[in-house]
Amino acid sequence: MKRVIAIGCVFAFACAAASAQKSKPQKFSAKQIAAGAAIFARNCSPCHGAHMADPQGAFDLRTFPHDQHSRFVNSVTNGKNSMPPWGGLLKPDEIEDLWAYVVAGEKGNEENSKAK
């Protein structure tokens, strides 16, 4: 019985910790978002669309869950479905810049443009 309670407590603690991590907003610099936008425009927009959504094309990146960083990195690095792997072409910091752009969205990119 004690073992079941202990496992339940560990599970509850893990869920609470995961929930707390999801609610933590991510902060990116304007420079990082702009770099991600440039990488996206050059490499990703032909399939994902100029504004991260191409109704005829690939996944709508505007809906990518912001709490799934490792899924994003894995998909970009190793490819997913018909998307080729970019790990050999993009450096890890460039993939992080892309992540910043995807999380910030077009709104983040527009705000950065106005700030210049």
Could you describe the 3D structure shown?
The chain is mainly alpha-helical and 116 residues long. It contains 4 helices and no strands. The chain has one domain (27-115): Cytochrome c-like domain (Cytochrome Bc1 Complex, Chain D, domain 2, Orthogonal Bundle). The N and C termini lie far apart (62 Å). Residues 6-23 have low confidence and may be disordered.
Tell me the structural class. mainly alpha
CATH architecture call: Orthogonal Bundle
Q: Taking all residues together, what is the mean pLDDT?
A: 79
CATH superfamily: Cytochrome c-like domain
Q: How is the main sheet built?
A: none
Task: Specify the overall morphology.
Answer: globular
Provide the β-strand percentage band: under 5%
- What percentage of residues falls in helices of 4 or more residues? 55-70%
Structurally, how many domains make up the residues? 1
**CATH fold name, please?**
Cytochrome Bc1 Complex, Chain D, domain 2
Number of helical elements: 4
For this structure, what is the CATH class? Answer: Mainly Alpha
State the main characteristics.
about 120 residues, mainly alpha, Cytochrome Bc1 Complex, Chain D, domain 2, 4 helices, about 65% helix, about 0% strand
